[in-house]
């Protein structure tokens, strides 16, 4: 029996998974035998769809993926998954080519493909970090926006210091969590201490 596995981590998940499903169907995998993971990186080994696909394998079955990077994005994970497939007495088919761990050339090709997949994942992470650094330098990456404006925060502090309301009441009134109220009060205390120090 052929067991298919498809994964995508991009924003165009439906399109990508549909393309992989069609490619797996062309490789003789029944639609009901295709397991998928959407929105999960190949660097994440703990994937529900992958677990189900591996659990479905029986002696003599074949796990089919369109490309190795759909299965894993690191050399270690690719080797571990291939070993688990072998332990279950099953075969691994990558884009229609069955991986033979006993064949030196096949083993070399598998390792090269694993290294390329890991290299691509590292490049993606590096580009993401560089993009965030550039955006931050240009002021486009401001991080989490505050829940309250400065005026709203002053009003909140005033309500709290009046002693007429509990933290829960003030939080409900301002539409924020109690943790936000506590943080606002802490900032107010720090500002007050700094002002006194400067005076």
UniProtKB/TrEMBL annotation:
Provide this UniProt record's keywords sorted from A to Z. DNA integration, DNA recombination, DNA-binding
The keyword DNA-binding belongs to this UniProt entry's keyword annotation: yes
The keyword DNA-binding is annotated on this UniProt entry: yes
The record's section on InterPro entries has: Homeodomain-like_sf (IPR009057), Recombinase_CS (IPR006118), Resolv_N (IPR006119), Resolvase-like_N_sf (IPR036162), SSR_resolvase (IPR050639)
Q: Which GO terms describe its molecular function?
A: DNA binding; DNA strand exchange activity
Where are the active-site residues found?
Answer: 9 (o-(5'-phospho-dna)-serine intermediate)
Q: Where is the Resolvase/invertase-type recombinase catalytic domain?
A: 1-139
SUPFAM superfamilies xref list: Homeodomain-like (SSF46689), Resolvase-like (SSF53041)
Matches recorded under CDD domains: SR_ResInv
**Record PROSITE patterns:** RECOMBINASES_2, RECOMBINASES_3
The GO annotation for biological process reads: DNA integration
Q: Which PANTHER family match?
A: DNA-INVERTASE FROM LAMBDOID PROPHAGE, SERINE RECOMBINASE PINE-RELATED
* Family, per entry: Belongs to the site-specific recombinase resolvase family.
Q: What is this protein called?
A: Site-specific DNA recombinase
* Species the sequence originates in: Brevibacterium aurantiacum
């Amino acid at each position: 029996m052929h067991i298919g596995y498809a994964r995508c981590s991009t924003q165009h998940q439906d399109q990508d998974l549909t393309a992989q499903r069609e490619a797996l169907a062309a490789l003789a995998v029944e639609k009901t035998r295709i397991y998928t993971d959407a929105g999960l990186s190949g660097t994440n080994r703990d994937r529900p769809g992958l677990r189900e696909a591996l659990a479905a394998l029986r002696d003599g079955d074949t796990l089919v993926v369109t490309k190795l990077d759909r299965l894993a994005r690191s050399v270690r994970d690719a080797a571990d998954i291939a070993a688990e497939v072998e332990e279950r007495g099953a075969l691994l088919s990558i884009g229609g080519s069955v991986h033979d761990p006993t064949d030196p050339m096949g083993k070399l090709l598998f390792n090269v493909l694993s290294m390329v997949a890991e290299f691509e994942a590292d490049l993606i992470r590096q580009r993401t970090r560089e993009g965030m650094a550039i955006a931050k330098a240009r002021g486009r990456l401001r991080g989490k926006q505050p829940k309250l404006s400065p005026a709203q925060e002053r009003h909140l502090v005033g309500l709290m210091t009046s002693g007429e309301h509990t933290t829960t009441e003030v939080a409900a009134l301002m539409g924020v969590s109690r943790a936000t109220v506590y943080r606002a009060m802490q900032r107010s205390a720090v500002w007050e201490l700094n002002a006194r120090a400067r005076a």
